[in-house]
Amino acid sequence: MDWGDLKKVYFLLIFLIGFIGYGQQTLKLYPAGAIPGELPHSVQEVVESYKGPEGESRRFISITSQPELTVYLPEASRNTGIAIVICPGGGYTGVAIDHEGHQMAQKFNESGIAAFVLKYRMPLDATSSRKETAPLQDAQRALQLVRERAVEWRLDPDKIGIAGSSAGGHLASTAGTHYEQGVIANPGKTSLRPDFMVLNYPVISFADSLTHEGSRRNLIGIQDTDGTWRIPETGIADYSNELQVSADTPPAFVTHAVDDPVVRVENSILFIAALQQQGIPVTSFFYAKGGHGYGMVNPTADRQWMNPCIRWILENFGGGR
């Protein structure tokens, strides 16, 4: 069954099924033994706990190698049919799974938006035959899985977006600009294009003058036997996502703090300019201060980015299902 047939099935069945209360569930992203490009390995994920600025407990999962998707479905009475896949950041060393993942999912749920927190694989030579494709494979698989189960979860398959913070923003923008380069099996020809992007202090460019060096090195770097790193020029061009925007790139909501010392704000500005040059709708929300890594709540500001972001999603994608 191809993507067109799946859409027809959706519109036929959506009125015939009732809401099934799934609550939160965590799914393996691939069937057993089917992680693409996986090498035999003994890599063990490491979970570190630390305190957030309000004293709340947060987790950072490093060297992630077992991709999973945690499902957050809204109450049936609030369900808008809109969904968003969330890619937490972590410099392509791991995922800040709580404040850039689960907490955001809960906030989206409050407004009737289904959310799916993606624990994606890190680009590791020890676990993947082609390390730089592993995160994108997982992002594409997450979009594919949500679309293919849209009927079951009472979602509109044409209202599936992707969000990401920091390096997760690089992954989300890669999914939004590289969707025609399918890097996963897709026998049903399901659309891998997100319908919109939400980018929170994103890494966008791999150019020397702008990039977050750790994210670039971890994703595309080649380590020589003497321990030095080489960055291939082709990788810089391929993964500088301001260079990959086309007339069919999805619309975006972009937010960043101007004083970010880790991921320079020019990353967002360049991406916004590239979208505007192609006539792609883009909305921005900038902070004067806030630094990097604040997640949903910038403690230096009274007005937070999540509320206008949710309004933007509902206004642009919330009409008739």
TrEMBL record:
It comes from Robiginitalea biformata (strain ATCC BAA-864 / DSM 15991 / KCTC 12146 / HTCC2501). It comes from the Bacteria. This is Pectin acetylesterase. Residues 69-275 form the BD-FAE-like domain. GO terms for molecular function: hydrolase activity. Keywords: Hydrolase. Gene3D superfamilies: alpha/beta hydrolase. The keyword Isomerase does not apply. The keyword Hydrolase applies.
